[in-house]
Structures are given as structure tokens and as C-alpha cells.
Amino acid sequence: MSPRHPAEPWRIKMVEPLPTTSRPHRRQALEKAGYNISLLRSEDVYIDLYTDSGTNAMSDHQWAAMMIGDESYAGARSFYRLEAAVHEYYGYEHVIPTHQGRGAENILSRMLIRPGHHIPGNMYFTTTRAHQELNGGTFHDVIIDEAHDPACEHPFKGDVDLAKLERLIHDLGPDRIPYVCVAATVNMAGGQPISLANLAEVHELARRHGILVILDAARAVENAWFIKQREPGWGEHSVAAILREICARTDGAAMSAKKDSLANIGGWLAVRDPDLAESARELVVLYEGLHTYGGMTGRDMEAIAVGIAESVREENVSARIDQVAYLGRRLAEAGLPLVRPVGGHAVCIDAGAALPQVPRDQFPAQTLAAALYLDSGVRAAERGVVSAGRDPATGHNRHPQLELIRLTVPRRVYTQSHMDLVADSAVRVHEQHAHLHSGLVFLHEPETLRFFQARFAPATSDSPI
Known about the structure:
The protein is an alpha/beta fold. It has 2 domains: 23-52 and 314-458, Aspartate Aminotransferase, domain 1; 60-311, 3-Layer(aba) Sandwich (Aspartate Aminotransferase, domain 2). It has 17 helices and 14 strands. The protein has helices at residues 23-32, 60-66, 77-90, 101-112, 126-134, 162-172, 196-208, 220-230, 239-248, 274-287, 298-311, 314-333, 351-354, 364-376, 385-388, 416-432, 450-453; strands at 47-48, 94-98, 118-121, 138-141, 179-183, 212-216, 252-256, 267-271, 346-350, 378-379, 381-383, 404-408, 440-444, 455-458. The strands form 5 sheets. The chain has a 5-stranded mixed beta sheet with strand order 2-8-7-6-5, with helices on both faces. A 3-stranded antiparallel beta sheet has the order 9-12-11. A two-stranded parallel ribbon has the order 1-10. Helix 2 (60-66) runs antiparallel to helix 11 (298-311), helix 12 packs parallel to helix 16 and helix 14 packs across helix 16 (416-432). The mean pLDDT is 96.
């Protein structure tokens, strides 16, 4: 009989003590942070599920590789090792390093987007849309409708609705659409994958109209695993082979190596067109650093090169997704409303369903995340109205259909016991706050990416948080 939770394919070689705190301490920390879990200090957090970006545990081989990092300003051999790894596992011809994924998004947007342009994509991501808008573009969500239904069990909720995309191209004209932005997996939908069949159709449709397809590749390895498990005809293929097939159906990619590549910092932009590559190199020198380091140290590039190879090992990606699935099962068995099916990097609780009485403009997800931290010291991430920001035309809060808190599991960091503690706390908070009628209101609201720096206060004096 197989175990309820498979054993991890690694053993612990070094430990980092975790801070334990009392409820009064956490309340004080939460108030000081303006009820924004983004502003909590790490020493006040017990289990940190805010993000899996740069928070992964690197392997002994990655740490060893860092010792041979070449810190030459120009032509560092560490860059060429990174470039070779991207060529081998992702298949793109031209690789431009950046300090992280956000740097790649900036270069891409400055290179391709002009005022009046429109960028379709399979659901927005916060920093991606911010860069698109700052360069004069407008984002359009062309994901399938099932992605906006948390309870729907569609196996590929990251798929693009081809009818929506074709209608947008017809209405706007292809000259106003520089590229289609395809995420694999889709973060804001809860880590949901796109199918290879759908991606192929997107690429063919875009190609007919002379439009590029650019991949957000941060979690493409996890997407490849879901294709292997769920898409007919791909079960016998390796994750590495499927990853190459994903990338083959795109014209370029922006990558945050802080996710799948198991590194603490770094990223890259890759394209097939040599002229675009030259434009990107010119911009990277201006905004990041020389085209052979792009804001990273040689040590970083060495760690990423090794991490790329480790990321596609079947046992590694399987253990990673199994751990997330285990947490999802614990919460589902207790009756918490979740995004289904559980995604690759996170379990997302439907805060709108968990706190139906809290008005959307009092931020149910932000409220639930604050309550979870207060209960146990677990930090989650808000992915709802606060993250969605304001409509630049009306000034009103955007109300996305998904109002979520994201329990994001870093790779190779926490044990099954940690997942059990998280589950116990989430269940307890759900039971205690099911009838909560008020949430939070802004005290300070930044204009851009407000969820990082905003400060809040309880909407009413009798709020339990």
C-alpha cells in the first residue's frame, strides 16, 4: 500500500531555526504592518507561504557550483553555462540574462509595447500587467471561462479561449497586438496549467496574423508535469521533453529563475528572432547590466544552470506537486472552499466563499490572510481585489471573479508536519470567522502594485482581527 504522502527525494543537510511567537506578539506585528502581510518582518513569521519566488532550498550541487562563479564583468564563463542550460532544456536560440523575472518583463515591454497596443493573455499577473500598462498597453483576459470558477474541475484551466482571442484580433486589428502573453502555469488562477494542444492552436492563430507568442516560463516545468499526468498522448514522455515542446510553441519567454529553477535570484529573457535579441541586449545594458550578466553575479548564474537541470528530474517535480496536493487534500477534507483542481505551486482558498458577508471593497482575502497570520504565524498571499488594483479609466477597484488567499509552498523547504500545522490553522480560522461581516479599509494606498506597500485598518471597531 502506498503511503498517504510520498517520502521526499532528498535528506536534510542543514537547518534554519524558525521563530515561534505568541498571539499578542503577532497582533502587535500585524498592527505595525498595517494589516498587510507583505509588510511583516520575516522574524515575525513562523511558516512563510507568501511566495515560492526565491524562497526555495538550493541543493548541495547548486551551492558547490556557486564556488566556481566567474565574476568577470564581460564574457563571464558562468553566463555561457547558463546560456547552454537554457538552450538544452528550453530550446530558445538567444538568451538575455536579467536580475529576475521582473527585469525580463521590463525589457520585453519596452521592446514591444507602444501606446495604444493591446496584449491578450490567459489571465493577468500583477507585475506583468503593470509593465504593460506603464508602456501604454492594455491587457485583455482571454482565458477560458472555467478558470474564473473556483469549483470547476477542468484539468487545463489555463487554456486560452480561442474564440475570445480571435474576436479580439478581429476587433482591434493584428497591428495593435504585439504579442500574446501565455502563462504556464497561470498564477492568478491558482497555478492552473495550459494544455499543449491549446498552446499549439494559440501559436498557429497568432502566427497567421503575424503576432508573437511570449511565454511566462516561471513554472513551465510544473505545467509540463500536469501535461504528462492529464493530457492524452503525453504520459510516456519525460517532463524535460514536454518542457521543450511547450517552448517550441512560442516565440520567446520571460523567466523568473526564482521559481522552477530553484534559485534565490535571477532570470532571463529568451527569443528566437535575432533582431529582437539585439534590441533586448541593448536594453539590458541600460536597465540591468552587461548582456553577459544582466544584473546577476556569476555565482547566481551557476546556481541557476544547475537548478535548471535539477528542476526537470521527475522525482523532484513529483515530490513538489505532491506536497502541495497533500495540503490541498487536508483542507478539502475539512470543507474549506478551494480553487479546484489544486495547482502546482499553491493551494488557493476561495476567500469570497469563506467570507461571503465581507464586502469586496473591504477585501475578504486580505482579511482572511491577516486572520490566518494572527492565529498561527502562517503568512499567505492575497490574490483578490487588492492585487487587482484600480481600473485606470474609472478609478474604481477592479473586482476579479477570484478572491483568493494563496498558500504558496517553497520547493524543498517545509515538511509534512509543517503542512499539517498550516492545514490545522486554516481550518480553525475558517470555523471561527465564517460569520465575519466586516473586513479592512485602506489607510495608505500606493498607485502601483499596491498590495506590496498598502496599509489597512479594521473597517469596524468590533472586528475580530
